[in-house]
Amino acid sequence: MKVKDLSVEELKSLIEEAIEEKLDEILGEPDLGLELREEVKERLGRSLAAIQAGEEGIPIDQVISQAGLS
């Protein structure tokens, strides 16, 4: 397939993937080798169990608003 045959969305997706790959290559994984604290592991476990039990989380727009990112 040639670039000229791609839709705008397909081209954007291809560019995004290429950028992500390059950034991963350059920056690497900054958290590689680090360990989670036990309380973080427990909290993640509870969160996963709640999701598997059908509980809903906080909507992302609410999280963004509460964090002052909007």
Which descriptors apply to this entry?
extended; mainly alpha; 70 residues; 3 helices
SSE order and pairing:
Elements: H1 8-27, H2 38-52, H3 60-66
Write structural notes for this entry:
This protein is mainly alpha-helical. The chain has one domain. It has 3 helices and no strands. It is extended, with a radius of gyration of 19 Å.
Largest sheet: none
Radius of gyration: 19 Å
Number of helices: 3
What is the domain total for the residues?
1
Indicate the percent of residues in helices. Answer: 55-70%
What is the 3D shape? extended
pLDDT averaged over residues: 91
- For the secondary structure, the number of strands is 0
Low-confidence stretches: none
User: What percent strand?
Assistant: under 5%
**First CA to last CA: what distance?**
39 Å
Provide the succession of SSEs: HHH
The computed structural class is: mainly alpha
